[in-house]
Amino acid sequence: MSPTRAYVGGTVMDDPSRPVSGIAVVNLNGPHVTLVGRTAPAAVNTTYLAARPGGDVVYAAAYDPAETLSAWRVAGDELEPLGSVPAGGGRACHLAVHPSAPFVLAAGYRDGTVAVHPVDAAGAPAAASHVIAHTGSGPDPGRQAAAHVHMVTIDPVRGDVLAVDLGTDTIHRYRLDEGSGRLAELDRIALPPGTGPRHLVVLGDRAYVAGELASTLTVVDLAASPPRVVTTVPTGDTGGPARCYPSAIRASLDGRFCYVANRGPNTLDTFDVSSGAPVRRASTGIGGDYPWDLVVAGRHLYAVNQRSGDLTTFALDPSTGVPERVGASVAVPSPACILAV
């Protein structure tokens, strides 16, 4: 079985003393992870990576210094630049490639924006065709004084654009006009105040939302009219000495389990969602410090840990879904995102 190619982006955020080196290219082969090289040196402070269908073009969002959306053509073990543009709204922290239309969507954390960028046949991005700025606030004065869009994704079932706003405890649903590249808002889904929603994953009619500020996993029924919150359960060790800040959430390939990375306690929570309602089955040490992102490839899960600067690997039990640490850590400077193609 051939290995899965993956890309790891690193970010220093607002700490220039931290090491970062472009985008790392790695091969994922079960418990064995091989660093192929580091490429795209211009893609510094990479906050998120996405690929268009087929995996021939990789998109990178970068915080500083230029706050860009860049495109890179995959050429063997290298990434060749296709072009970059200012990210609509600035300081993009998440990207989504539309599965059937030539657009990349960017979530702007600082200004609470959702931007739509057309791309040409080669995959190079153009200036935004539409930028929507959210308004509002939440109860946390430090993190929710204004809107902060932390994720944008495409609902794989209904085709809607979902924008997750940490600052306002809201999920905005949009419909993308594939002709004009403009968004029309469908509705807004209110989450419990103080949730601070960061990322979500859609499984069928339900969205599972990781709440960064409340350390929760919230289930939303997307098929209800209007959509509604079904239940909320805790994630992470909220009684431990370190405050818990959930980051990434991923689903197993069969959709039976969700995995939540918890910064602070540095754990990986396994939730059985086969009944629709999440039941926590295990909390596993992540093997590093401050897990920022996860990816599932086959029967393995891979975590990147920002402060310890490494990638850790877990085998997923096919029956229980529970991860078990395998293999050795692989050093990657200040990783913030991992993309498997």
From TrEMBL:
Pfam families the record matches: Lactonase
Domain of life, source organism: Bacteria
UniProt xrefs under InterPro entries: Cycloisomerase_2, Haem_d1_sf, Lactonase_7-beta_prop, WD40/YVTN_repeat-like_dom_sf
Record-level Gene Ontology MF annotations: 6-phosphogluconolactonase activity
Gene Ontology CC terms, in alphabetical order: cytosol
UniProt family annotation: Belongs to the cycloisomerase 2 family.
Protein name: 3-carboxymuconate cyclase
Taxonomic placement: Bacteria, Bacillati, Actinomycetota, Actinomycetes, Jiangellales
